[in-house]
Structures are given as structure tokens and as C-alpha cells.
Amino acid sequence: MEMARAESFGTRKAPGDDAKGELRLLTRADLEDPALITGWERLAARAAEPNPFFEPWYLLPSLRQWETAERVVTKAWFHQGRLAGLLPVVRNAGYYGHAVTHARGWLHPNAFCGVPLIAAGQEDAFWQALLAHFDRSARRALLLHFPLLPAEGPVNAALDRVLAARGRAHYSVTEEHRALLRGERSAATYLEAAMSAKKRKELRRQHNRLAEEGALAFERLTDDAGLAEWTAEFLALEAAGWKGEAGSALACAPETRGLFAESLAGAAADGKLERLALRLDGRAIAMLVNFITPPGAYSYKTAFDEAYARFSPGMLLQLENLALLERPGVQWADSCAVEGHPMIERLWRDKRRMVSRNIAIGGMARRAAFRLLMAYETRPRSTK
Hints:
The protein is 38% helix and 26% strand. The chain is an alpha+beta fold and 384 residues long.
């Protein structure tokens, strides 16, 4: 029995699989099966676009925290017996304050990209299979909602092709532009182009003044050495600031505290974690977590000691983080920061455009209702 289960997640042709592939609903027990995880890791390695938030080491801890409460299901697409696409999905009765039942790609507040994991070269086939599935089993959902898709990426381009081929109604709901680090220059050359000489001089002055306060040292770690202690230190540093006062720090809830610890441990085990810290007399006054997912990277979380705000420790640490430009295999880094972030956009000068999209599903009557919603949401707004 175990042999049969492993084969269903392996490289052999699965029962019922055909040229169009097979879409399955996976339980968490399925997702935690070692054979499935092996295929999942292979999928992440050959994905058309990297998304750490849907890799095993991040999605599994997320599901353990919120799967039951939010009724998350994971859609997996198998092609020629191999896992070739994966997307967690929820159904929701509320839509931006309206009573509109819909299905959507699932993200929680600490997941910053909604692009499905799809094997490179299979993007069109995945979208065809997923949309056909929801046409057949729309249930009460009026539409499919996909949040935070990289607008210029190959996955969104494939979705456009598939929608155009069938004339399927769709529209963009929201769009945001967040700071992106990109370029083939060295960190020093990038900094010189991105920031004025006056500002660079001011940062050097702040660095020197901070060094007068004690022994100042920078650390960069890419393994799991001392990870549990480092994680606890980060959580305490973040909670001591404004996020702790607002109740939004990771340590303020057991779910987010657990997610942070588990995901960092998983990323480290998978060789995808980078930790940075600026230390004064051995104590961290600024810390940063990167997820390294070639050809990209995601700057996941950062925190700094507000008692040293006059020295800009967060910005000083970001100067060290420019070394991402020189890291082999990394072509860009997503800041994961809100649009208009006052600190990171002074340094990271490119933008990553993220779109959230609504797509019609089901039969003629349902699609007619979708077009009414589309007309309402895309109508010209008064400027008065």
C-alpha cells in the first residue's frame, strides 16, 4: 500500500492521467507524505517563477496554523505522473465588503506573493486545467480571485493567453508597485547610482557615530548555526518596537510566532535562508531575513531597535543587504514592503508590479452575473 501511495506522487504515470494532466485535491496528510514532498521540491526547483510562500518549508507551517480555521484546500496538478502545479485555495462568502461568494488563491498576512508554483513550460496547460476544474465545480462561487500575481512574469502572461483564447471575462481588481532590487552592478556601484553623495555621506557619519557607542559588527549567516536563539532575538527585537505596541508583531500571536520559527528552520534546512544582523556590543540593533529562491530573493522580515533610530540602523543594515546583487544565481530581490515604504524605496529604485485579478467561471448565467460585477467595479469613478 505504501508503495502504491509513493508511486502516485512519483515520476510514474498516475492512474487517469492524460495529455492534459490531472488536477487533484490534496489533504495535509498528502502534502506531508515524503514522496509528495520530494516531487514538490522538484517542482519548486523548476518552477516558472519562484514563490517561497508556496514551497513545502513555508506552506506546510502556514497550513498547520490556519488550514482548519480558513478551510484551505490545496489544488495540485499532475502532468505525466509528476507534480507540475500547486496552489492553495479557499472559498469565501465575503468579497471586499460585499456578499459575493468566490474562490481565491489563499494568502495570509505574512505571505507576500500569490503566484502558483508551475513547472516551467507548463504554464498554459496548468491554467487551462485549473479554470476547467472551476467551471465544472464552481458550486456557489461567482468568480476566481487571484491575489498578488507578478504582472510581468511568465505565469501572468500565460494566464492572459489562456483567457484570450477562450474570450473569458476578467479584470484587475487592485495593483501595487513595491520596491525591487535589480541590476548587474556591484553593491558599491548600485549605491552610488541610487543615492546622492550627500545622503551617502550622512550614512557614513551615522555609522561612525554609532561605532562610538560600542563595538559595532555586521553578521551574515546562511546556515542554521544558533538559529533558535537568533529567531528568539529577532522576535523580541520586533516586539519591542511599534509593531509590539500595535499588537502586530510576530510574537504577539502563537500562530505567527510558530510560523516564523518553523519557516526559518525549514528554509535553512533547504539552503534558502540568509540572516543579517547589525550588532552593538554583541546585541542586535537591526536584523533582517532573506529567502533565497533563484533567480530571485525575497526580503521577508526586518526589525531594528528604535532607541537607536537617530543612527538609522535599519538603513545601515540595508546597505549590507545590497550584496544580494552580487550573489550567484540571484537576478532580483522583492522587498515584500508596502508601496511607498519610506525607507526601502530610498535605496531600492526599481519596482515590482503586483496585480490581483478576478476571472469568470461556470456557465452562461454565472458569467453574465460576473460581467455585471465587472462593469460595476471597473466603471469610471467621479473625480469630484
